[in-house]
Amino acid sequence: MRLSGVNRILRNMCVLLGVAVVWAIFTDAGFANDTHIIAAFSGFAALNLFQRTSNTIMSRLRVPVEWGFGMIKAECPFITRPNILKLKQKNVSRILRNCVLLTNIRCLMMGNQTSHYFECETMTMREYFA
Fold first, then answer.
1. In a domain, 80, yes or no
2. Structural domain of 92
C-alpha cells in the first residue's frame, strides 16, 4: 500500500475536489492505518461496539469486491496453477494484467453481479478505455 502511493492520491483528490467527506480504502487488518487507508479492527473479544459495527458494515461491502477476483479465476483458471505464476520464470504481471483486462471486457459486455449489488450501471467500452 505504501509503495502504491494510494494514500497520497486519495488525499490529493480530496483537496483538489474540495470534498468534505474523506475518501478512504478499507483493508485487511494486516495493513497499517493512514489518513486514507483504514484497516479492519482486529481481536474480536477486545473490540468495542463501534469497532465491531464498523467491521460488520465494511465486510458487507468487501464481499462484492472479492467477487471480481472470483470472476478472474473463473475466466482464466490457469492462473491458479503454481507453475504459471513463478516470478523469475514467467512474466507474471503481464499474465495477470491480461487476465484482468479480458475479464473486465467480458463484464462490460455481459454485465456483472457487482454492478447489480451496488445498483449502478456498467460502464461502456468507450468509458472503460478512455
1. yes
2. 63-129
Reading the block at residue 42, the C-alpha cell is 482486529
What CA–CA distance (Å, rounded) separates 43 from 51? 10
**Within-domain flag for 69:** yes
| Per-residue model confidence (pLDDT) at position 34 | 82
Rounded to two decimals, what is the model's pTM? 0.57
Asked if 26 contacts 18 with a C-beta cutoff of 8 angstroms, the reply is no
Residues 72 and 125: their CA atoms lie apart, in Å, by: 18
Sole residue written with cell 483537496: 15
Higher pLDDT, 114 or 94: 94
Predicted local distance difference test score (pLDDT) of residue 101: 92
Selection from 64, 27, 120 nearest residue 10 by Cα: 27
Q: How many domains does the chain have?
A: 1
Round to whole Å and give the CA distance between 123 and 100: 16
| Average of per-residue pLDDT across 79-89 | 77
